[in-house]
Amino acid sequence: MIEYGRMVMVQQLLTNASREGARVAILQSSENSDVEAAVIDKIGGIIPVTTSDIAITPNPVSSAVSGQTISVEVSINFSQVSWLPSPLFLGATQLSASTSMRKELVD
Predict the structure, then answer these.
(1) Where are the domains positioned within the chain?
(2) Per-residue pLDDT tens for 57-105?
(3) What is the rounded distance in angstroms from the CA atom of residue 99 to the CA atom of residue 20?
(4) In contact, 58 and 102? CB cutoff 8 Å
(5) Torsional class of 72: left (φ above 0), alpha (ψ -120 to 50), beta (otherwise)
(6) Which of 5, 37, 39, 56 counts the most CB atoms within 10 A of its CB?
(7) How confident is the prediction for the chain on average, in pLDDT?
(8) DSSP character for 92?
């Protein structure tokens, strides 16, 4: 139960962080560093996510044109976030969340 409870908690954190990253990514002046900072800030140090765990499409985000879909995916291996020294069931599981939004239009 501890393993699955932790997995659900981390999955929710990843979902919220990818959504926050996408919200920043759709702004006209956004750069990849802004998106990555928003994701890491949303997670708040609860899990060890780094910029290499964040995938932004298109890359760089500043190349997106108005109306284009931008995706932000955050991934981490469960063994990096488990509370157990050696996870019994979910050790090799890759947890990820992705959010897609359209780049804001300028009128």
Answers:
(1) 2-102
(2) 998 988 888 889 999 999 998 778 776 677 677 778 889 999 999 998 7
(3) 9
(4) no
(5) beta
(6) 39
(7) 88
(8) T
